[in-house]
Amino acid sequence: MTRTSDAPEGARNADEPPGRTQDKGEDSPAAKPKFILYLDGPEYQQELYQLVQWTHHVLLPVYGREVTSTAPWCSRWWEHPGVVAQLHGLWLAWSQLTGPDADLAGPASWHRDFLGPVMGVLRDPAGPFAGCKPGYHRPKEVPPVDQLAPPQPHAA
């Protein structure tokens, strides 16, 4: 896909690899994308926006299946940090394995090595969407951790 003229300057299409910009005759390659959990502030929000675009316009229309009790999905998936991390990793792999520089076996590798395992985890009845139903998001509680920290390592 190419960026349309009404898109904001610097905007990236949902299927354009993260960290790359449209070729404007620049000789230097764009910086490698960062994993979304390493981002914060506006950089995180922009990456999340792009992830939402890819998820809603590429992933779900092609690979989304009916939501059932045995294959849940949350309509507010972006409020599940672990899901954001999983989908971002899936998107990064998509970008690398299906982009213009990918070899011909890239898409098959992406389906086998990334799509199936990630969607299997996300859609598992005991997975991150357990308790979520169409139209209802159930926030997850962070597992409790004892207040005592493990001992500090001794300096050598």
From TrEMBL:
<dbReference type="InterPro" id="IPR032584">
    <property type="entry name" value="DUF4913"/>
</dbReference>
<feature type="region of interest" description="Disordered">
    <location>
        <begin position="133"/>
        <end position="156"/>
    </location>
</feature>
<feature type="compositionally biased region" description="Basic and acidic residues">
    <location>
        <begin position="12"/>
        <end position="29"/>
    </location>
</feature>
<dbReference type="Pfam" id="PF16259">
    <property type="entry name" value="DUF4913"/>
</dbReference>
<feature type="region of interest" description="Disordered">
    <location>
        <begin position="1"/>
        <end position="29"/>
    </location>
</feature>
<protein>
    <submittedName>
        <fullName>DUF4913 domain-containing protein</fullName>
    </submittedName>
</protein>
